[in-house]
Design brief:
Layout lengths: L5 H25 L9 E2 L2 H12 L13 E2 L14 H37 L1
Antiparallel strand pairs: 1-2
Length: 122
């Protein structure tokens, strides 16, 4: 028997994308001194909206990765590297807050389900 609410899938996708964002940011930070390296990223809001829309008619998309692209508009150093530690620090802080929000929402969702189960036993 599987007990879930409609929020579970959406929160799972949200947390997966947040994790991917953290991995990309960590990779960008790790390559700050690599000549010619271009900052990678994806549009979180657009990708989350796309995955939610796609999930309405298809299953099995959970865990799908967002397409990663070079980030445009950043200033490159003479060696061709355009990683900004200030930008990456902000991206990491944002991703951490998003992950914390997602886990708190998921915890609340499970608490609601558990409350419903315990209501039946009373």
């Amino acid at each position: 028997m599987q007990i879930s609410s409609g929020m579970d899938d959406a929160l799972g996708r949200y947390l997966d994308l947040t994790s991917q964002q953290m991995q990309i940011t960590a990779s960008n930070m790790a390559n700050v001194d690599t000549p010619g390296y271009k900052t990678q990223g994806f549009d979180f809001d657009q990708e989350f909206a796309r995955q939610l829309k796609d999930s309405a008619g298809a299953e099995g998309l959970a865990g799908s990765q967002a397409p990663v692209q070079d980030v445009d508009g950043l200033v490159a150093r003479p060696d061709g590297n355009n990683v900004s530690m200030d930008r990456e620090g902000l991206q990491l802080a944002k991703a951490q807050m998003q992950f914390k929000l997602g886990t708190q929402l998921l915890k609340g969702d499970f608490s609601t389900v558990m409350s419903a189960i315990h209501m039946d036993s009373k």
